[in-house]
Design brief:
single chain, 293 residues, alpha/beta, 5-stranded mixed sheet, 9 helices, 15 strands, globular
């Protein structure tokens, strides 16, 4: 039976959201599924209450390869030869997702943001079709007005040794809950090293603007796709809202009412600052919808 792991970088402002996510992981995944959470230096104690047989809490910088040491005061990576330039926390989170997935003893790693909750039983099989881990890809999801996404495509293709992307629209591979295959992530790391002549982490963290999800998606479609059949595409596993405005309970419940039959996750963007009671109402309604389906 394929094995599932869950990876979540988090930080103190998202603690209530992470608590809901972790409870849903315990409820909706099987006993061998481990939830790995990576937190900033100094926040290990705050998250330590989740530590247990099914949760591993780690300081995010210490989760990177051994020669990369974090100096919390200066936020500069150093090694025995020379200091590394400052690496923003967002880039560090992305690097951890890649490194952690590559080292996981799992067939599928589910990268889940703190504002995700699982709402139905979730196994590795949900993300495997015809022997392959599905790819989240929204065709033509990136438009010319989405400047950052366009840059992310450009950077991904450069690191992977591909020509520049065509003009938008381009595929979007970004989501709050994304399944990755560890073997593919390891192949992606090797490709970056071969193309750049640098350790993949050196090349990745040197970028000011990069998306781990677009990097993975472009690698699967444009690199692996040159020599093998690409995996099936699936965009149905997480019921997601990116609405930037806060929701009341009525709006949140109405959103939950639209939970699709294939969705195992729900995400209301943390950036919306939706009150926790409204989120809880949506979670309860999702449970009802799931039970009715």
């Amino acid at each position: 039976m394929p094995k599932l792991a869950v990876v979540t970088p988090s930080y103190p402002p998202d603690l209530p959201l992470f608590a809901d996510l972790h409870e849903s992981v315990l409820t909706h995944t099987q006993g061998e599924t481990i939830h790995h959470v990576y937190v900033p230096p100094g926040d290990l104690r705050l998250f330590s209450r989740f530590q247990g047989p099914r949760c591993r809490v780690s300081v995010r910088s210490r989760a990177l390869p051994g020669r990369y040491l974090r100096l919390p005061a200066s936020e500069i990576y150093v090694n025995a030869r020379r200091p590394w330039p400052p690496v923003r926390g967002w880039i560090t989170q992305q690097a951890i997702k890649i490194h952690a997935t590559a080292t996981m003893d799992a067939d599928v790693v589910l990268i889940a943001d703190s504002d995700v909750v699982l709402v139905r039983p979730t196994t590795a099989e949900r993300f495997v079709r015809d022997g392959q881990v599905v790819l989240y890809r929204e065709d033509d999801g990136v438009h010319a007005s989405m400047a950052r996404h366009v840059i992310w495509h450009q950077v991904a293709r450069r690191l992977l040794g591909l020509p520049p992307p065509p003009p938008p629209p381009l595929p979007d591979y970004v989501g709050p809950m994304i399944p990755w295959e560890p073997a593919i992530v390891r192949a992606m790391q090797r490709r970056i090293t071969e193309v750049t002549g640098r350790h993949w982490l050196d090349a990745f963290t040197a970028e000011m603007h990069i998306s781990e999800f677009i990097l993975y998606g472009v690698f699967v479609d444009e690199v692996l796709g040159q020599s093998q059949e690409p995996p099936p595409v699936d965009t149905t596993f997480c019921h997601t809202s990116y609405d930037p405005d806060p929701w009341d309970e009525r709006t949140a419940v109405a959103f939950a009412d639209r939970l699709g039959p294939q969705a195992v996750g729900m995400a209301i963007s943390a950036k919306s600052n939706t009150p926790h009671n409204a989120r809880q109402a949506a979670i309860r309604r999702c449970a009802e919808v799931a039970a009715e389906s």
